[in-house]
Amino acid sequence: MFVAQILADKGHEVVTADPGESVGHIALALFERRIGAMPVSSPGGALVGIVSERDVVAALAEHGRDVLDRPVEEIMTRRVITCARSDHIDDLMARMTEGRMRHLPVLEGEELVGIVSIGDVVKARMSEIEAEAQALKDYIATG
Fold it and tell me: How far apart, in whole angstroms, are the C-alpha atoms of residue 6 and residue 124?
């Protein structure tokens, strides 16, 4: 299965953050939307970072509650690992495991067209496994 199929099932909506938004505002948005990360985009729309729950917690632990008033660009991860619609989920699983990350923005050229989480990848892989198991059962039953 490919990223394009995951996005077809879950949709292409991506909630993004502005680099100048406060960490507190982003933390609230992550909580209210029940998401674990937000890509950070420049005013021109270019991907400049990603901020995750882990980034917020680390910043709070290091700087205390005052960090909530700082801009998110101060705590975001700047080196963003991304994927493309044409990437296979096996590659994503390896990339996410190796990089210890749970979210990958999906780019088409420079355009942000989606985001996939480890949950999306696991769900897709489970669907593949279930389909393979059913195909084997059907083959045995008709064989």
Answer: 7
Q: How far apart are CA 13 and CA 141, in angstroms?
A: 42
Residues 60-96 pLDDT 10s:
999 999 999 999 999 999 999 999 999 999 999 999 9
Sign of CA dihedral 56, 62, 65, 71: negative
100-141 pLDDT, tens digit per residue, is 999 999 999 889 999 999 999 989 888 878 877 787 887 888
* Cα–Cα distance, 19 to 2 (Å, whole number): 30
Residue owning tokens 């995951």: 6
The single residue listed with the structure tokens 């050229």 is 109
Q: What are phi and psi of 99, to 5 degrees?
A: -90, -5
Residue 18 has pLDDT above 90, yes or no: yes
| Residue among 47, 27, 45 at smallest CA distance from 37 | 27
Whether 143 shows a pLDDT value over 70: the answer reads: no
Kindly provide the residue ranges of all beta strands, DSSP E only, lying in the chain, ordered along the sequence.
37-41, 47-52, 103-108, 111-117
